[in-house]
Specification:
Helix content: 40-55%
Strand content: 5-15%
Structural class: alpha/beta
Distance between the termini: 21 Å
Mean pLDDT: 90
Low-confidence stretches: none
Length: 774
């Protein structure tokens, strides 16, 4: 339908065309896509500019219709490219849907802890005190002298160096990795100065990569590059899962290499490389990929057992010394002890670090732990006294329990000693206050743990998994079963052969433990009934050898029983060694066809290679709800209520005031209308109330020529008609995103639209009724 008609005149054809181009570029039309980019493509075509064209001009130049990549210098910023058209509308749709339906269960937010008020403080940066400046930071040494020079500087450094985990492992352990980029950006410049003497900031990798896309609807690469720009003086460190990169499975070698190369180019300086089973062949790939990319490579031993207790079995001092020797032979720049659960006692830290220091006097030693049993500070001091160069800590407000030990406590205890950290505690205090306020906003993601747990020495559950399992048990009403779950975790670990437990091996143990609780099984019953039990898929994959070979080999006869009864052949050697190279060129071509060439780059292709389904679902979410990363966190997390009013900066220099006026009662089909006032203008946003729609079972199937159904399962990403519109047969009614492509659904008959059964964002199955025509 026509929105506006423009007419231009001039003294010549060229002048007239120039005036029309200016009119189209300077017009302001918001909220709907127009044909203006197409018209500009026509006006600027060399053949058209001659003034001599025929009626076949458009047919002969199909490129005129390619408007998805048009980027004209429009006066209205919202029209500058096709993705920005309707950008504000999509964000309002997100707020409307959140107000009606709340968050999906998968997000893991406890609805009873979501705060109702909205605070503009969530958009303010943390400001440095006057006179506080960065010293240039440890990264200057790394950039000037390279990884080998940095390793030498670390060994020669007087005092204990710290790595701050607040930006990754701390919130991964305490808040289910749900920290948004905005909170990190707002304190990045302050952190760059306050912690300029730190060895590194751990801020990427692990679970942060997929969670960014899956739950936060953000780009993990944009997080890395944005923070790199704001904190240029501190080395950035990431956690690399060896051959698993940042995933939960094996990838072709070229994927791991390309990922590390891009990560280093985007800002990662230090790669902590580990394998969940300490499987050397998997570790070699990770070390080689990180080193080839130009990074500082830290070889991490996944610590389990207790080297100070000779009764603890195979994980003795000799085991770790041999693994350290293999790392050094690979050419790593430093050695790390990765204590995932907090099992490293002070005595064990002194023994292991002391032996490593004696055997590898020129290699930096870095110690990581979790404070689950409450002994983290003591263990880190013991490690430092035994010769460790770096230990991991977190800002006080994000420390303790399943996170890392307190930075403030360690800095204070070592101040003025030979191990002085060189960290200015007065600046750390400002950071701590900031994170106390942030953590309060993220209260819905707290597990509910109120204290440490010394029984970790028995069950050995890793820090991040501990809080996840505790949260899940409470969500399922199994709080009274929590002690049994922990006990079964220990039993499951022994059933599987007593393995190191860190992603993805920890998931295997956790899945088996929950299976044993659900089926009321003891270890002997698991082994006796192995041929008939419906084990979790992760357990079968582990026994097949899909994540590597565990220390001491696989548990027998359990493995043989499981594989032989299912006719499964075991994996021989490194799981990913036989995978063919990933075809990046083909993947890039397909992604550009789906999302537009302008909107897909090498980093997107990498994200898709690692998490194809997660990446696609994230992009489909954006097509419906826009770039929700622009919303303040309190608005992203907390549903608005009637009469709530918020104000925030949507884009640099552009502030928006949003007031939720009303939410209508649901219709029989579940539709509700949410009325907003946006900068004084009324906006009406229809939303399907999922609870009502589910109860009413409104997704009836289409029947007859006048009812248009969905051709396949998918998500409605666009509606082109409303009730009362007149349509002709074949006219587009809606757009469905399904099977990694968008499908335009045409009218099956001519007539008037009687009923629209869906809203944008609704999920539909095949043949579900979309539109009824009369």
């Amino acid at each position: 339908s026509m929105i506006v008609k423009y007419t231009a005149r001039g003294s010549s054809f060229a002048e007239t065309v120039a005036r029309m181009k200016r009119v189209l570029i300077e017009c302001r039309i918001r909220g709907v896509k127009t044909n203006i980019p197409f018209l500009l493509n026509v006006l600027t075509h060399p053949e058209f500019e001659t003034g001599v064209v025929t009626t076949a001009f458009i047919d002969e130049n199909p490129g005129l219709k390619k408007v998805s990549e048009s980027a004209w210098n429009f006066a209205n910023e919202e029209q500058s490219d096709q993705r920005k058209v309707g950008a504000k509308e999509r964000l309002i749709r997100y707020l409307a849907n959140l107000a009606v339906n709340g968050h999906p269960v998968e997000l893991g937010a406890d609805p009873t802890k979501i705060k109702s008020e909205h605070s503009v403080d969530m958009t303010k940066k943390l400001i440095l005190p006057k006179g506080a400046t960065s010293t240039g930071g440890m990264r200057k040494i790394l950039l000037e002298q390279g990884p080998e020079g940095y390793a030498k500087a670390v060994r020669e450094h007087k005092g204990l160096l710290l790595m701050d985990t607040t930006w990754r492992d701390a919130h991964q352990s305490l808040l289910a990795t749900r920290m948004r980029t905005k909170e990190l950006e707002r304190c990045a410049e302050y952190t760059n100065t306050a912690l300029s003497n730190a060895f590194s900031l751990e801020m990427w990798g692990g679970a942060t990569f997929d969670v960014a896309m899956r739950f936060l609807h953000e780009c993990p690469w944009e997080r890395l590059e944005s923070l790199r720009e704001k904190a240029p003086d501190i080395p950035f460190q990431m956690l690399l899962r060896g051959a698993n990169a940042v995933g939960y499975t094996n990838y072709p070698d070229n994927v791991v290499h390309k990922f590390c190369k891009q990560a280093h180019a985007s800002g990662i300086d230090i790669f902590r490389v580990f394998d969940s089973l300490n499987y050397v062949e998997n570790l070699k790939l990770g070390v080689d990929a990180a080193g080839t990319a130009g990074g500082f490579v830290e070889g991490a031993m996944s610590y389990t057992g207790n080297v100070a207790d000779p009764t603890k079995g195979k994980y003795n001092l000799e085991y770790y010394m041999k693994l350290a020797d293999e790392f050094v032979d690979m050419g790593v720049h430093s050695l790390a002890i990765k204590d995932m659960a907090g099992l490293l006692t002070p005595a064990a830290a002194k023994m292991l670090v002391g032996a490593l220091r004696e055997q590898h006097p020129n290699t930096p030693i870095h110690v990581h732990t979790h404070d689950t049993p409450g002994t983290g500070i003591a263990s880190m001091i013991a490690a430092a006294e035994a010769g460790a160069d770096v230990v991991d800590v977190a800002i006080d407000a994000m420390s303790g329990m399943t996170s890392q030990p307190s930075m403030g406590a360690l800095v204070s205890m070592l101040a003025g000693t030979d191990a002085d950290t060189g960290i200015d505690k007065s600046l750390v205090g400002g950071l701590n206050t900031y994170w106390e306020n942030v953590r309060n906003v993220y209260l819905p993601f707290e597990s509910g743990q109120l204290s440490g747990s010394s029984d970790v020495y028995e069950h050995e559950i890793p820090g991040g998994q501990y809080t996840n399992l505790l949260f899940q048990s409470r969500q399922l009403g199994l709080t009274d079963k929590w002690p049994e779950i922990k006990r079964k975790y220990a039993e499951a670990n022994m059933v599987l052969g007593d393995i190191p437990k860190v992603t993805p091996s920890s998931k295997v143990v956790g899945d088996l433990a929950q299976f044993m609780v659900a089926q009321n099984l003891n270890p002997q019953q698991v082994e006796d009934q192995a041929e008939s039990l419906a084990f979790p898929e992760s357990v079968v994959q582990f026994l097949r050898g899909e994540i590597g070979i565990p220390p001491g080999g696989f548990p027998e006869p359990l493995r043989s029983k499981v594989l032989e009864s299912r006719g499964i052949e075991a994996v021989d050697g490194r799981p990913g060694a036989t995978l063919p190279d990933y075809n990046f060129e083909e993947a890039e071509k397909l992604l550009k066809e789906k999302f537009g060439a302008k909107f897909i780059d090498d980093k997107d292709v990498l994200s898709h290679a690692l998490y194809p389904n997660v990446f696609t679902e994230w992009k489909e979410f954006e097509s419906i709800y826009g770039e929700v990363s622009k919303l303040p966190t309190d608005l992203f997390l907390s549903p608005m209520k009637e009469n709530d009013e918020v104000e925030f900066e949507l884009n640099p220099g552009t502030r928006v005031i949003i007031k939720l006026i009303s939410i209508t009662p649901p219709r029989d089909d579940g539709q509700r209308t949410v009325t907003f006032e946006i900068n004084g203008e009324r906006w009406l946003m229809p939303v399907t109330d999922i609870s009502v729609a589910s109860d009413a079972n409104v997704r009836r199937k289409a029947s007859g020529p006048n009812e248009v159904g969905s051709p396949m399962p998918g998500v409605i990403v666009n509606l082109k008609v409303k009730e009362g519109d007149t349509v002709t047969e074949g006219e587009p009614l809606a757009t469905l995103s399904a099977m990694k492509m968008e499908t335009v659904i045409p009218a099956s008959a001519s007539g008037v639209v009687k009923h629209v059964a869906v809203n944008i964002g609704d999920k539909v199955d095949g043949d579900d009724l979309l539109v009824e025509i009369e």
